[in-house]
Amino acid sequence: MENILIVRPDRVGDVIISSSSLAHVRKTFPEARIVFAAPAQMAPLYSDAPNFSFLPLESSLANAPFSGKDFRRAIALFRRCFSCENFSAAIFLHPSPPMQIAAWLEGIPRRIGFNQGLAGLSLTDGVAYSKHEGRKHEAEYAFDLLTLIGCVQPDALEPIVFLREADRVSLEKMIGQHFFSQSFFVVNPTAFSLEHRWRPERFAELVFRLVRPSGLLKGHAVAITGGHAGDPSVLALSETLLRQRVEFINLAGRTNLGELGHLLKKSRFLVTRNTGISHLAGAVGCPVADIFNRTEPIYGSARWRVLGETVEIVAHSEKRSFLETNPRYWRRALDSISVEEVESAVARLVSRIPKGGTA
Q: Is the domain of 193 the same as that of 295?
């Protein structure tokens, strides 16, 4: 194969997890041109990759509804993306009906993906979709497809990102040399859904217990991250830390993923609900206290744990009550996790990392 397209069109954590397969595709095809297609926001992590090219995608169209104007527009857009590349194979690590159909219309000879829905008919090699069973890690599901081109799953999988020096410089200018040179840790109180979050008041209590005069991390500063500055969890946490007179900087909505990667690389550790930033931290070697709100196979740590050695998982197995709504169940599962449990997880992390640095 001369030109191989690998597609992961969804969220930040999914893309970073899937990057763990790229080195093994390169090893299998040392002379091939490999193109990794992912949402445009991932460019700060992959545009400078030395062993493959990065193709930015309009992620809002990658999973456009199967009918209507947006679906037709998505197909036309992705056809233009593929038309001048002369790909010999396209591998879709997650289903994307418009992208799969665009690849079929452009005549890409091999189209490999999960055989899900009508769009599966556009594939030359369809594999049964079983991710919902959660029998293995999300990274391993990529090899259900890659084995079809002779790429064998290795014993260990590690995600990769390629941080740019320009992003380190811009981050240092943003937060100041004083903050960047001192000991700090990162807390991320946000997640994709408002219902899938540990409460901000618990994050605030955790931070205060860690940095108070008798705390484990006396004298440490704190960086808050999140998707945007107006996020309600970020605002609530910031207001509480101000009242507690804790030194912190609010970076929610201010960094791109490259700058965030440099922040995590410098941080002693991260505390977060399992989400995209968890996997970015793992990729740059930042220890993670990772809070899981659900333990069913489709959502649990067996499938979504951070691919890294210095990780502490905090989770409870809560049984869903009869007729209990999803939001109520998710909230109850997260509320069952106490501040003391997460503080203990942080203590275990700190015992495994050198003072003043990451693992």
A: yes
176 and 67 in a single domain? The answer is no
Which of 52-56, 109-113, 296-300, 353-357 is the least confident region? 353-357
Is the same domain home to 87 and 188? no
> What is the domain range of residue 138?
3-149
Amino acid letter, 19: S
- 174 and 306 within one domain: yes
Is residue 293 included in any domain, yes or no? yes
**Residue 358 in this model has a pLDDT that exceeds 80:** no
Q: Considering its fold, how many domains does the chain have in total?
A: 2
Neighbouring residues of 241: CB distance < 8 A, sequence distance ≥ 6:
204, 207, 208, 222, 224, 248
Segment 30-68, tens digit of pLDDT: 999 999 999 999 999 999 999 999 999 987 888 777 777
Half-sphere exposure of 197 (CA within 13 A, CB side): 21
Looking at the fold, whether 43 and 102 belong to one and the same domain comes out as yes
CB atoms within 10 A of CB 152: 10
Q: What region does 30 belong to: left with phi over 0, alpha with psi -120 to 50, or beta?
A: alpha
Give the strands of the sheet with 270-273, arranged side by side.
248-250, 221-224, 184-188, 270-273, 288-292, 311-315
* Span 262-273, average pLDDT: 97
Q: What is the pTM of this model?
A: 0.95
Paired tokens of 32:
């091939």
Q: For residues 112 and 30, give the distance between their C-alpha atoms in angstroms, rounded to a whole number.
A: 20
pLDDT digits (tens, 9 = 90+) for 171-215: 999 999 888 888 999 999 999 888 889 999 999 999 999 999 999
Spatial contact of 148 and 112, defined as CB atoms under 8 Å apart: yes
Give the pairing type, strands 288-292 and 53-57.
unpaired
Same-domain pairing of 188 and 276: yes
The CATH number of residue 116's host domain is: 3.40.50.2000
